[in-house]
Amino acid sequence: MTRPSEPQFTLAERNFVYSVAMKYMRDEERASDVTQDALLLAYRHRHSFRGDSRFTTWLYRIAVTTSLMHLRKDRNQPSWQPLSDEESPANEPATHEASPEDCSANSEAVHLAEVGLEEMGVKYGQIFAMRFVEGYSEGEIARRLKLNLATVKTRAHRARTHVKKQLVRALAA
Known about the structure:
Helix content is 69%, strand content 0%. By secondary structure, it is mainly alpha-helical. It has two domains: 11-76, RNA polymerase sigma factor, region 2, helix turn helix motif (Rna Polymerase Sigma Factor, Chain: A); 100-172, Orthogonal Bundle (Arc Repressor Mutant, subunit A). The radius of gyration is 25 Å and the shape is elongated.
């Protein structure tokens, strides 16, 4: 039985991918993982290299994309672990009810957000409410309102940015 050929990359190519990964990961172990994944991807998709550019340019893009995928995956995983019963602070209140000051601050923030959204118009307020208050995904909003997904993403971003500016201005005053 013949063994399938293993990916063959020169030492210079491996070092090149590792150096690109180190720029993004800033950790030797994680950069090694990215290097391994990037070289494996390059081997699997070697048929897609068209020769329009240098091989190292193509390899560089694979290394960068793989690094960014690893960073995105790390960002989406929680970096905290819940405390066990033995580690939880003894003086933690039994209930999690908001204080009157918190309620007042929250209602003021909601009022400022509403004012900011009214300034932008109905189309932004509706998407903001569906996305950030009701919790619909952008895809669901696009289907419900019969809009292009890119339009929903743009409007949600603009509305969120506008509300954030309103709140920052109010806190600075």
